[in-house]
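Checklist before submission:
- one chain only
- standard amino acids only
- sequence pasted in full

Submission:
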Amino acid sequence: MRVHIAAVGRLRKGPERALIDDYLTRVDRTGRALGLGPVSESQVEDKRGGGMSAEAALLDKAIPAGALLCILDERGRTMTSPDFADQLARWRDGGRQDLAFAIGGADGLDSGFRNKADFALSFGAMVWPHMLVRVMLAEQLYRAASILAGSPYHRA
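Returned file contents:
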């Protein structure tokens, strides 16, 4: 199952970019043997100032047709890391070819875009900076792949 991360905003060089690149490289190494990956990343930016609806249109274009859409949203479902790994495995084993994670900008996701999501995932009741959410998602994807592979990375 190919995994796509579509996010609002350009993340340039810096510690967040380095962490994301490291975790996504790890996901690709661990996940391919498990049928997870490769992971691709699309960054979209509304340069015309159209707000959340314009960002939603750009995210929509970045997501492959037919992909299962999982949004990152504070109103979404909170999960343990093993539960997240199990959910990824169920989607993969259910024959999904593409899984897309969408991360909104500083103002979040447009309500119409949120409503068409197949799944909403939350990293807790707190609101996280959208750039940091990318790092957290990349790490959780790697953690999920390592859990499914039986690796000792996850020690819970």
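Reviewer check: The two ends are 26 Å apart (CA to CA).
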